[in-house]
Amino acid sequence: MTEIAGKKRALTFQELLFTLQRFWADRGCVLQQPYDVEVGAGTMSPDTFLRVLGPKPVRIAYAQPSRRPADGRYGENPNRLFRHTQLQVILKPPPVRIQEMYLESLVAIGIDLKEHDIKFEEDNWEWPVGGAWGVGWQVMLDGLEITQFTYFQQCGGMDLDPICGEITYGLERIAGFLQDVDSIYDIVWAVEPDTGRKVTYGEMRLAEEEQFSAYSFDYADVGRLWEHLNSYEAECLGLLSQVKDFGEMDVLKLKRFPVLGAYELALKCSHLFNLLDARGAISVTERVGVMARIRTLVVGVAKAYAAQGERVSELAS
Amino acid sequence: MADFLFEIGLEEVPARMIAGAQAELEQRVVKILERERLMRSGAGTKSFATPRRLAVWVEGVAEQQEDVAEELVGPSVKVAYKDGVATPAAVAFAKKAGVEVAALKTITNAKGEYLAATLVKAGREAAEVIAAEMPKELAGIYWAKNMYWRAGRPERFVRPVRWMVAMLGEKTVPVEFGGYVAGSVTYGHRVLFGEKEIVLKAPGDYEDALLGGFVIADVEVRRQRIRKALDKVTRAGDLKGSGLRWREDHELVDKLTQLTEWPSVLMGGFEKEYLALPEEVLVTVMRDHQNYFAVEDKSGKLAPHFLAVLNTEADEAGVAVIRHGNERVLRARFNDARFFWEFDQRVPLNERCMLLENVTFQKDLGSYAVKTGKVRKAAAALAGRVVERGLEVDVLALDHAARLAKADLTAELVKEFTELQGVVGGLYARAQGFPAAVGDAIYDQYKPESMEDGVPRTTEGALLAIADKADTIAGMFGLGLEPTGSKDPFALRRAANGIVKILAETKVTLPLKLDEIAEMGSYDAAVVAKMRGFFAERLEFYLKEARGQAYDVVKAALAAGASDVRDAVARAEAVTAVRGSDDFVAVSSAFKRMKNILSQAREKGISAARGVDAALLTEPTERALADRSAELADRVYTLRAEKSYRAALEEIATLRPQVDAFFEAVMVMAPDEAVRANRLALLEKVLGDFSGIADFSEIVIAG
Hints:
The complex is a heterodimer of chains A (317) and B (703).
Chain A lengths: L12 H14 L3 E2 L14 H4 L8 E10 L15 E10 L5 H11 L9 E5 L2 E3 L4 E10 L2 E12 L2 E13 H9 L8 E4 L6 E3 H19 L2 H19 L10 H6 L2 H20 L5 H33 L1
Parallel strand pairs in A: 1-2
Antiparallel strand pairs in A: 2-3, 3-8, 4-6, 5-6, 6-7, 7-8, 9-10
Helix pairs in contact in A: 6-8, 6-9, 8-9
Chain B lengths: L1 E9 L4 H21 L9 E6 L2 E9 L6 E9 H4 E2 L2 E2 L1 H10 L7 E5 L2 E10 L4 H15 L6 E2 L7 E2 L3 E8 L2 E2 L3 E2 L2 E2 L3 E3 L9 E3 L6 H7 L6 H19 L7 E2 L3 H8 L6 E6 L9 H12 L2 E4 L5 E9 L5 H29 L4 H7 L4 E3 L3 E2 H21 L6 H10 L7 H5 L6 H9 L4 H9 L14 H20 L13 H14 L8 H7 L4 H21 L5 H9 L5 H14 L3 H22 L16 H22 L3 H9 L2 H10 L7 H18 L13
Antiparallel strand pairs in B: 1-3, 1-11, 2-3, 4-8, 5-6, 7-8, 9-10, 11-12, 13-14, 15-16, 17-19, 18-20, 19-20, 21-22
Helix pairs in contact in B: 1-4, 6-7, 8-9, 11-12, 11-16, 12-15, 12-16, 14-15, 15-16, 16-17, 16-19, 17-19, 18-19, 19-20, 20-21, 21-24, 22-24, 22-25, 22-26, 23-24, 23-25, 23-26
């Protein structure tokens, strides 16, 4: 880390995370832990994908490791990762000053706005497999995209009401910027206070990048990945097939019906698809078909979740 | 009278939508004020826009509508009174007019004496009218993409509204929209001025007050400020006197004008080693991914610098920090590009062709390997045609290029920078030792991508581009996927526009007709017919949009042939050149008359004779027309054959005295059947002889 004389020391990776979490906790967000199923983006965690549905207000924040097997570079590229960490903030409905609050969060992590160039450039977000999209911006800080800011509009093909503000910080990017390092692996993750020893991002994660790139590009057994995909899909479909019986379930049975379990199964399928894709095992012709299969699961879960919520509140009133 | 100001404050509006919305808001405000008689015609208006606001100022708006008197006419006096007593008709009219029967007056008009009443519609206050009308207009603004933003509300808008200003003179107008009521408070630059309020005293304060808040509201002023700063910073950065210049890029200047409220410019640099990457790659990274301007030296070669437009103004230390950040990002982007470039070279284009089996072009049309096969065939057929007609083509290079054209779709660099497809293939072909003719054709295959874009540089490139585009159109049409209305998901209009533009603008004339190209890509007669119509429509578009020809001239020219593009352009231009002359106008309207007479005769089942019989030409004027036009026809045919269209048209215009005299003295629909049929035949012949350049009856004559 470069320490410019007279300047405040840049935050370590974990201090950056602490500061942002504290910032949003102070503004009413419940801090959730990362979701423990593989996802390709923070948006796919049920804390976003399912909580944005329905009328209930939500303020939640969590750091979410996101895995994109095809983006792996065996740890050789200083800017690309197979797994990176997003800080996801969900505000439903979005407060009027949401943009100003976001800018204040940048100040909180040591960015003097007057010393930098900030632009909100149109960048709309879309996850077709989840029937989800929103309009928004990429926030550019001195030419670097540090945040995706989205007004979530639809999820599972359903209009959201109220809509939801979603702020996704790319933590590695921001840490690299704050610490002014050219490689992600040089980011200081933490400093031991007694010895002053710096623990770097590379020390913590490089082995993972190397091995998981190799796994997803070279080792993963294609036949078995397909088997997993088929079997998770079958189980998810089995659950979804029972959604039509919601009307006959008593409230207890309905509340306990594992829509959340079905979602995990759908996410597993999505990740397996990404692995197969990285492995080069999905031909372009197949691609559309497999994506449609996963879309059936993901959108099916969103609809089931909404139906379950509505039916439970009907029965309760 | 007072000036009117309206401003709507929004979270950052997408840059691409601002100019359209600015114009639309101005037009909608003017529409209200004119319709409501609050604005005098010719009053000054001005509109403003930044990423966070759209505003309109109108000079001298009336604060109150004038009362309007309206005369209502009722029943005739005869009907209204029987024996001096008001009839039910009179009573009903008085009720309708809202007055007593006694208050009705009597007027005399052309038909006689009638009851009447004068109604006075009281003028409303401007503020009231504006407050009532404005919300509808705001809700009606068109946005390419919009959002729901308030809970429980069905309304959609481009981005959340944050404030509104509406002032008529010093008073605010309570326009309500999106949960806000307009007032006199606006806001400045997000960072440089913060969330402090700017209170406006009067509409005229707007620009100055915003300047104080670090916002340049006038788009043009902002654009000029950016251009000047680009010049100045480039000059200042040119320490070794190598004549640095920023590369002109109107679109990027526009975009940055719409991305900033208080722009400034800085110059950054990058390591010279990156200049080893192709210029196209470097420029795409800078322009498309970072919004940076490229910098070149005196010889036009890319220099290791870039220009970034900031939405802020920093002191020297601040600029150093921002420059450092921008350079860091660019270096990372260049590193990625270099990584892909080197990675891609491991698999040569020849091998990549095989991989195209796995890349779908369209699900019903198969892979890009299939498409490649079809394009090769079409390109060879087109080449055969033009070679027959004496144009030189490197047939081998063309086939090579067609075979390799899509190979770069499998390259990582293209996956990362899709806008570089074709370009990357061309560069790889060159790097892998293929002849320049092959590389250039691959490089140019997608050209022109727009009306402004250039056409392929070589004949081989032009033929490949035409074959590829025609194949796509034929394939999609074959599946019934024609563009409809504003929907053109496969960009088929752009493809057809491209073909037209290539035929019209290549350096060496390509002896190919649109009809032939339509036949090339398909054997299905129905598809060929649809393609012909589609091409003719695109040629019409090209003549109007790219060549600025009037719609009637275009129609006239196309009626005489819509397949030979260069010829149609030349004929349309010739018509435009002569259309102003009195003689030409007279001849055109005479031709229109002839056409009408013939079609009316046809409708009545009266037919013309097979040919003109000189013996039956009884009147001297018709003999004169026949003689003179026969004489002219020879000359016009010769001029047409030489493509001296303007001269030919000028000749035709000399027919005026004879046509004028003919219509003055001769009745075409003569009672004698033989004379009549002969006269109709004469008109048919005149029209036939002189409509080969354009159908003049389509020309709209002013006045």
